[in-house]
Amino acid sequence: MSAHNMRASERLFIIVISAAAAKTLQVLRSGARGLYQSSPPIYPIRWTFCQGYTSVVGRLAPICVALLFAAILFVVSPGCAHKKHARHIAPAPQPGTTRPGDSETGVASWYGKPYHGRPAANGEIYDMEKLTAAHRTLPFNTWVRVYDLDNNKTVEVRIIDRGPFIDGRIIDLSHAAAREIEMIGPGIARVRVEVIRAPEGVPTGVFAVQVGAFRDRGNAERLRSQMQSRFGPARLIQRAEKPGFWFVLVGSETSEDAARDLASRIRQNSVEKNDCFVVRVDTA
């Protein structure tokens, strides 16, 4: 039954019950008045009957009122019950997605010249005096808050570049960002990186393991071939932020965890013992 028809039937039910209750009260009261207005209660039987009739009226009146009240409750309470309140169940996050609150702890470094003025990995020109940073796996235009764990200073930066490709480091800050948390002199700092705003409309991430970077394409191709024979699909890419180098990427995983597992297998089974970094594969 449609919601419209249900409301119409409920209104009809109220009208019928209300009319019946009102009519019953009217009949009972008129009957009682008739008894009282008839000949004086000379005979005990008539008087007793009159008293009994009046008592019945007094008892039935509340019942009629109760029926009317029940009719209203039928529409208000059960009517509300007809509306199904769907439970909101948040969808499970898909692998490779970035959410505010995601965080990691590690070592931060900073970079300036000679990268200042060159294209960053996302295509824009890197300005070391803007609050930006490089990260290996976060989507471009993700905003993160960087907490210095030693001096409690913080800075918010936008991800525009890829790196750092040094084991143990998790983020490369611009010169301006490094100045904000007083790490220009030391060059590195222990930090916690927390996502505060993720870009919208970013496709689900694809991750690979970077196993080498070469100026000579022939050397890069030999390593790519070796890796592909042992660990599956591998390819060469170039990056705008580091022209003249060929990077060897292995795998095409739908989550960072899967890519980390692949990196662990490569470290354990490779004779070369190359440095392995999980990276997001950026589409052109």
Folded structure, characterized:
- This protein is of the alpha+beta class and 284 residues long.
- The chain folds into three domains: 3-81; 103-197, RlpA-like domain (Barwin-like endoglucanases, Beta Barrel), CATH 2.40.40; 207-280, Alpha-Beta Plaits (2-Layer Sandwich).
- 38% of the residues lie in helices and 23% in strands.
- The chain is built from five helices and ten strands; from the N terminus they run ααβββββαββαββαβ.
- Helix 1 runs antiparallel to helix 2 (44-81).
- The radius of gyration is 40 Å and the shape is globular.
- The model is unreliable at 1-6, 41-50, 75-86 and 88-93 (pLDDT under 50).
Write the layout of secondary structure elements.
Blueprint: H1 3-37, H2 44-81, E1 103-110, E2 132-134, E3 143-148, E4 154-161, E5 169-173, H3 175-180, E6 188-197, E7 207-214, H4 217-231, E8 234-237, E9 246-253, H5 256-269, E10 277-280
Parallel strand pairs: 1-5, 2-4
Antiparallel strand pairs: 1-6, 2-5, 3-4, 3-6, 7-9, 7-10, 8-9
Quick structural overview:
With about 280 residues, this protein is an alpha+beta fold.
Helical amount:
25-40%
Which structural category fits the helices and strands?
Answer: alpha+beta
| CATH homologous superfamily classification of the largest domain | RlpA-like domain
| Rg (C-alpha, Å) | 40 Å
Mean pLDDT equals: 79
Query: What number of structural domains do the residues give?
Result: 3
The major β-sheet equals: 6 strands, mixed, barrel
**Helix-strand string:** HHEEEEEHEEHEEHE
Note the total helix count: 5
Could you say what the CATH architecture of the largest domain is?
Beta Barrel
Shape assignment: globular
Q: Gap between N and C termini, in Å?
A: 54 Å
Count of beta strands: 10
- Estimate the strand proportion: 15-25%
In the CATH hierarchy, the third-tier topology of the largest domain is known as Barwin-like endoglucanases
Report strand order across the widest sheet.
1-5-2-4-3-6
CATH class of the largest domain: Mainly Beta
